[in-house]
Amino acid sequence: MLKINSVGLTISAVPLLNNIIIDCPRGSVTALMGPNGAGKTSLLKVISGEHKASQGEVEINRQSREDWKPAEIAQFMAVLPQSSTLEFSFTSEEVVALGRTPHATGTVRDAEIITAALAKVDASYLAQRSFVQLSGGEKQRVQLARVLAQIWDHCECEGDASTDGILLLDEPSAAFDLAHQLMLIEIVQQISARGVTVVMVMHDLNLAAKCADQMVFMNCGHCTAVGTVSELLTPELIKKVFSVDAEVITHPVQGTPMVVV
Amino acid sequence: MKVLNTRLITPRLCGLLLLIALPMVSLLGLMTGPVFISLADILSITLSGNGGNSQEKLIIEIIRLPRVILSLLVGSLLATCGALLQGLFRNPLADPALIGVSAGASVGASLVIVFGSMLTANGLLLGLSAISVGAFAGAIITSVIIFRLATSPQGTSVATMLLAGIAISALAGAATNTLSYLADNDMLRRISLWQMGNLQGASWDRVGLCAVTAGFLGLLIPREARALNAILLGESEARHLGVNVEWLKRRLIIYSALGVAISVAVAGVIAFVGLMVPHVIRLLVGPDHRALLPLSALAGAILLVAADALARVVIPPAELPVGVVTALLGAPFFLWLLVVQRRRT
Known about the structure:
Chain B: This is Hemin ABC transporter, permease protein. The complex is a heterodimer. Chain A has helices spanning 40-48, 70-73, 92-98, 107-120, 136-150, 152-156, 178-193, 205-211, 229-232, 235-242; strands at 2-11, 14-24, 29-33, 55-60, 63-64, 77-80, 166-170, 197-201, 214-219, 222-227, 247-250, 257-260. Chain A is α/β, with parallel strands linked by helices. Chain A has a single domain (2-76, 151-260), classed as 3-Layer(aba) Sandwich (Rossmann fold). Chain A is globular and about 55 Å long. In chain B, helix 3 (54-88) runs parallel beside helix 8 (204-220), helix 3 packs antiparallel against helix 11 and helix 4 (101-115) runs parallel beside helix 6 (158-182). Chain B is 73% helix and 1% strand. Chain B has helices at 11-31, 39-48, 54-88, 101-115, 130-150, 158-182, 185-196, 204-220, 225-231, 235-240, 245-267, 273-285, 289-313, 322-344; strands at 151-152, 155-156.
């Protein structure tokens, strides 16, 4: 679904990404991890089309990123940025409605989707509130509802869309409380089961371990390691990438690997 | 604490109220002036073409009707362009003066006032005086300079445009001041009156020019409403929502430069309408451009007609510059609205 073929990125003579190769099959969840400045967000921006790759290319649905028109790609790919700077007092409902901009599905269908998307991120009670007055976590939940609304047909109705959905998330859980972090994981699992390919930048190794099919460790613009959660979560790799001494134990109930520092 | 809706009224109600106010204010504009003309006379003159006495008929047909229509058109152009620029800059405080268009127009007009006597100052082009042509040229030239300065291969930077606009405004202000310094007393008076805006020069030619511009923009601008909503989230967010942001910015800049340049050319610098009207409408019905753009156009028209009517009756037989009145009327209302808004939240 999404292939990153030897992508390099150089901006103002500064190399930000170097020979990145990642393959994200349909319905997979990929977690991009690494220290600050490793190039995670830059990679996400190359995929979303904000930066043009200096070398290599991103392939979406067997077609080069360059060949997609913005209006076409917005039909099935949504991007959640790290933070938003909305100065105008839209209500939360109106912010989510902006997610329907690429579609012409009509006001009735859009209203249904908006209500459902807000409910999905536990933000129904915020629908009529002014977005600018919300807390950081509430804003991020409403923005999550907006990107879900954008690719709603791919998230909820399997199979009838011509292309499967892609969702790019940049530190989606940074502002969330514990319960909403788990809500995010559940949503990611749900939509990936419906065929949506998810790529997300995450800092919390344990949270990523809960839902990622594939982990990518990045450092200084390079891909240090790509593999499954159990392949990557080792004390040696964590030491190498994050310069932190950590133990990896097994979750007593779920059996997933856990990083303890 | 549960805040339900932060909006004061619905867009529908707002539109209805404005549509009721528009003809009422327009009639008021036709009635008031040095010679008072009764409502009955106005209706018989405008609807059947006769009635009233011949003097009243002349006043309506040659002076007041074109003036009221010109105010309607200029008011709606200024308010709509203000709304466009505020959306483009994602800043509710942006207005046409901010990107240097008004300052550039002032330079153009002042140049013609000071040096125009050497040219054929009485020549008219589409009903525009040489001063208007100078103002239009000044506005368009500054828009182009600022746009060029802000555009690089990476795209047009809105932040650079804002800074360039401030710098160009300062430069243009210095040029206008120099021209004022060189000017004699009569020229000086004309420069400063022009900068306060007035609709005295209204004529059917000018109405035609403005109507064509307003009609053209009125067809094109509403199509951008959804994209403008998306761009309020941020440029990259809008791009991810499928909006071709670079072309959108170019179109918005062209539309607003054209709208502002035409209104400045026919009516001088009228402050505050472009800044305040969209802001007030946004406080009333929210920032959705699908409602904001048409409602701003209506409210801008109403405000300017009302201000112009007032300008004619405050100190008879003289007239106040309409720009002074828009500020006198608008600013207290704006402040009141801000206070109300703060109490509600």
